[in-house]
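User: Show me sequence and structure for the first protein, then do the same for the second.

Assistant: Starting with the first protein.
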Amino acid sequence: MPSSRRFLAAAALMLCVATAGCSDLDDPGQGLTRNDLVADLAAQMTAAADLTYEASYQLSGGGKATVAQTKKPARTAYVYPGGKITVTADATTECHMAKTTTCTMTAPLTAASPAPATVFDGAGETGLVTPATVLALLNAAVLDNDVEVDQHDTTIAGRHATCVQLAGVDDAAARDFTTCITNEGVLGSFSGILNQTRMDVAMTHYSEQVEEATFALPQSAKLVDRRGR
């Protein structure tokens, strides 16, 4: 997403605060709207699917998590307290780490075979909010003309990020939340009530280099193959 458009959206919002023309910002005939800024962030996150990166996150309650992905080969890993999920062209593998670690392989992701809900619904025991979950929330906000939007810029783990505080999002898992998206389109932070669970996630480290071990299955794990081959 061109940075110039995002700059113009932010500039328009700041000009609105400094003048009496806030109502004009929501008038489709005036060009930029608050929804344009949210749409830009959603487009950045969509484009980030082609990136190779590894990001570390601080979770509510002191836990830590990692989201990593590579473009070639196309694969993604989610590491969170007590578990791990890897998504590759061959399988979606979900590991539960306890006294005996078990990793269950299911069919690769397709429209008819969604990812395991334990992590991809963005709530629950994992404490991890995934980029896909935040993207879905932003897309819902874009379709809601009555959503309230406040915007500011910040720096998270050394990366510039645009933050939006959204209120009153209809037809979404979270009606009120704040999220920050880096210039690269990577999730910088999320804070809000998601599926009736308080979720707070903040990026603490970002790298364009991905450790191969991030995609490896835990040693001595019991492997269960349910791909039906």
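Switching to the second protein now.
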Amino acid sequence: MDEFVLALAARGVTDRWAGQQRVWVGELLAFAGVPVWEVGPVDVDGWLAGARERGAGTQTRGVMAQAVFRFYAFVEARHGGWVEEVTGGPVPRPVDEFNRPRRLAGAVRIPPSEGEVEALFGAWRAWLPCVRGRGFLVAARDYVAASLWRRVGLRINGLP
């Protein structure tokens, strides 16, 4: 764990951020109650579910899972050979495709089909004339903006 935090510091992250990574990985390891190389996806599932019950939001749980993912990538890169030699198996990947946050590499988002997009904008276009007063201006503005984003391929995450 200390090497992981030291590597984060060498990368230039803040002490507070590195410390939070340490806390989350430590929480998982305490929850699992097994050595680092025996933690599995079920342990991460239980730990994240417990965090949800304690009031952690979706985004926080995603960052928690990212911290664990990052820690295990570090262990694999720096100590994978040793772990395999000692345990007879590779470093585990307890954050898998089922409990992985959407933002982590490898996550797949399936965009809506062209027909679904057309149905959405067609219904919106038909609804616009029914709106009266100031509501029409706001609705028309939103429709034009969304239609433009669709045509030029902007994503919400790409906006300032």
